[in-house]
From TrEMBL:
It comes from Paramecium sonneborni. GO terms for cellular component: nucleus. The active site is at 72 (nucleophile). It comes from the Eukaryota. The keyword Acetylation does not apply. This is BRCT domain-containing protein. The chain holds residues 278 to 616 of 616 of the full protein. GO terms for biological process: double-strand break repair via nonhomologous end joining. Keywords: DNA replication, DNA synthesis. The keyword Ligase does not apply.
Length: 339
């Protein structure tokens, strides 16, 4: 774990990993679960490996990687690529799925059903708008904007606009607090979208706070709503939408989430990612007798095949640091979690 959750070394096998990830992506689209697990395991292992693989000799004592994937790695070492990737990526169906999945709200499954109706390109989608739901229509029309990454300065501006509105709406400075998570918090130069988490610091009822915040942000930032907040069993609310910082600016995807303060530490941890980092963190929690999610940390007892036998009361974690302390881990700054 110490390795996978962000070792101090630079990744030594990027060429191999990049090519294997192409296959993983295709197998994910095809919902080929067995292969996905095998490839994800192999890739995770290679990411943590502190030295470069140079020949088949280096692969000998690596039970985490299956024989078929080992053969693929050797092919990459010899030719720099995989014929399998060339073949699969070139297949009409996969080309179409990749193309159609550019639209937010169209995943591989939906894309495949479109493909079987003869819809293969964004142009085809435009001619068949009646087959799309409202969100897919909106995102199809904005696809060129939405697939551009957000420069950090603009991301900061978006966050500032949201924070200002939070303060104005709550009336009391500091009653609510917000954290920009995701790739922004990991200090990336650009972000795919904005992931903003909000909590009420005094733990009292938030009533319609998120809904009112969204209303206020209409005209100032938000232009299209994709999903309006709805309170879940766990007392959380999620909003997904689109906005831009001015009438000339590019449209951006913006997520706003409201979590109760006793869940906030786990939520911030989860939405800071990366997804790889989250996976290794969850695994570590499991091995140490806990279950970790965006909603909290629970003591858990597991039996054979990792089956949950007992789940205790949630342990309140208002800060990320609480999670690290309970799990016996040294705090890792977000910047180092991009593995
Ligand atoms: N997340 C996760 N598993 C998923 C999806 C998300 O653990 N299947 C977590 C980790 C991500 C965070 O949520 O870092 C935010 O999701 P994003 O898809 O917005 O990913 P990032 O913000 O990391 O990257 P990007 O710059 O593409 O938005
Ligand atoms: Mg993001
Ligand atoms: Mn997001």
């Amino acid at each position: 774990f110490a390795c996978e959750a962000g070792a101090a070394h630079k990744c030594q096998n990027n060429e191999i990993i990049e090519e294997l990830e192409k296959l993983l992506k295709i197998y994910t689209n095809e919902k080929d679960k067995g292969r996905c697990i095998a490839y994800r395991k192999a890739i995770g292992f290679l990411k943590a490996l502190p030295y470069p693989i140079k020949s088949s000799e280096d692969l000998k004592d690596m039970p985490t990687i299956g024989d078929k994937i080992k053969k693929k790695i050797i092919e990459i070492l010899q030719t720099g690529q995989l014929t399998k990737v060339q073949k699969l990526e070139g297949q009409e169906k996969n080309v179409a799925i990749t193309e159609l999945s550019r639209v937010w709200g169209i995943g591989p499954t939906t894309a495949a059903t479109f493909y079987f109706k003869g819809i293969k390109t964004l142009e085809d989608l435009k001619k068949n708008q009646h087959l799309l739901n409202r969100n897919q229509q909106v995102c199809l029309n904005l696809v060129q904007d939405l697939e551009q990454r957000i420069p950090r300065e603009e991301a900061t501006l978006i966050f500032e606009i949201v924070k200002r509105e939070i303060d104005d709406l709550s009336g009391v400075q500091g009653l609510y607090k917000a954290t920009a998570c995701g790739s922004y918090r990991r200090e990336k130069e650009t972000c795919g979208d904005m992931d903003i988490l909000i909590t009420r610091c005094d733990g009292k009822n938030t009533e319609d706070f998120l809904l009112n915040l969204i209303k206020r942000l209409e005209g100032k930032l938000l232009t299209h709503h994709l999903t309006m907040p709805k309170r879940t069993e766990q007392d959380c609310e999620t909003y997904m939408g689109i906005g831009r910082v001015s009438n000339q600016a590019i449209y951006r995807r913006i997520d706003l989430k409201l979590y109760p303060k006793e869940q906030y530490g786990c939520a911030v941890l989860y939405f800071t990612g990366s997804d790889h980092y989250n996976r290794s963190m969850r695994l570590w929690a499991q091995k140490n007798g806990y279950t970790l999610s965006d909603h909290g940390l629970y003591p858990t007892q597991r039996g054979a095949h990792n089956k949950k036998l007992w789940k205790g009361e949630v342990i309140p974690c208002e800060e990320e640091m609480d999670v690290y302390k309970i799990l016996g881990l040294k705090y890792k700054p977000p910047k180092e979690r991009s593995v």
